[in-house]
Amino acid sequence: MKVLVTGGLGYIGSHTVVELLENGDEVIIIDNLVNSKLEVLEKIKKITGKNATFYQYDLCDYSKVSEVFEKERPDAVIHFAGLKAVGESVSKPLTYYENNLLSTINLLKCMAKYNVKKIVFSSSATVYGKPKTLPIREDASLHTTNPYGTTKLMIENILTDLYNSDSSFDITILRYFNPIGSHKSGLLGENPNGIPNNLMPYVVRVARGELPVLNIFGDDYPTIDGTGVRDYIHVLDLAHGHILALNNKIHGLKIYNLGTGKGTSVLELVKMFEKVNNVKVNYQIVKRRDGDIAECYASSDKAKNELGFTCKYTLEDMCLDSYNYHDAN
Ligand code: NAD
Ligand code: UD1
After folding, report:
1. Distances from the Cα of 235 to the Cαs of 131, 247, 321, 322, in angstroms?
2. Is residue 19 part of a domain?
3. Are 216 and 283 in contact (CB under 8 A)?
4. What's the predicted TM-score (pTM) here?
5. Residue 163 designated active-site
6. Mutate to test the pocket of ligand 1, among 62, 66, 88, 122 (most ligand atoms within 8 A of CB)
7. The CATH number of the domain where 37 resides is what?
8. Do 175 and 125 touch, CB atoms closer than 8 A?
9. Which atom of ligand 1 is nearest to the CA of 58?
10. 29-79: pLDDT as tens digits
């Protein structure tokens, strides 16, 4: 299959491109490098021995997207591109709405024009807001609490309306839980600029002595040890979920959670990280972070039953691989 991967040099996109190339698929990438580096392209080649065709274009520029469709005529699209920092989306809402929505609309217009009907879209567990029941099923109520999350929900709605207008579209919405970990080669991973907001990159930097202490946001939640519980999923398992979604025999509009179905607390993750990497992670308990929820983990039954999706990697692997990437870089 010839697959157009938007945001293919980013964290999840790059891991997925590797798996596509290893499966023998042809890959076209559009990425404007707003949150990634060109060197990732070389690393993908180093891992796979294969080339992906790369266009450094902004998806907000319709003429550029159209040019790629005209030239490449892809069979399917995986749409990762988007801005994803929750805090930044609160301070720059228009930037988020413009980038995430306009890029998607341009892409969908080109898909319609060039008769490309298959798309897999990166949504997020953030669309569930504060869950009423756990584990979270795909039919749970949706509610967002920040502009980033709202762009994801709006795009889900756009895709649903598009499907309702033309049922020859084959649309898969994947709601990711908390991706961590990195490629086994140590060449690909996540290394955010500045001080990380998310737990794993922060833990890694404290373990390396680059940051003095991990602030654990609250130990008074109604959870196993009082700290927040999340469903961490290895990025390689997540990447594999996209391959399954592309090859799904069920056509139409489908929504799947991609998580392990297992909740892990902040303290459990920190202890596991210390154990498998034989390092110390200094931490202190501070007050809860605004907007945080106590617990969030997926029901992964639907993805398992319809896609055959299961997770190969454990929390140990996630902790080892996250540190390994940082070590190697
Ligand atoms: P990332 O920032 O590493 O990758 C996104 C890529 O998209 C980057 O390479 C960036 O340069 C590119 N991009 C952004 N806007 C663009 C535009 N207008 N034109 C062209 N390229 C553009 O993010 P990621 O962690 O790999 O996430 C991929 C997708 O998954 C995003 O849509 C994100 O919202 C979603 N998601 C991520 C997480 C997570 O925790 N990482 C969780 C749930 C959902
Ligand atoms: C983040 C995103 C959310 C996205 C989700 C899955 C934010 C604010 N939210 O949420 O939109 O859907 O990932 O990718 O970025 N923690 C600490 N100390 C830290 C950092 C985090 O104790 O320095 C705790 C948090 O309180 C939480 C857990 O670690 O309990 C995970 O936090 P984080 O990695 O930020 O993910 P989410 O809060 O799930």
Report:
1. 23, 19, 10, 10
2. yes
3. yes
4. 0.97
5. no
6. 122
7. 3.40.50.720
8. yes
9. 19
10. 999 999 999 999 999 999 999 999 999 999 999 999 999 999 999 999 999
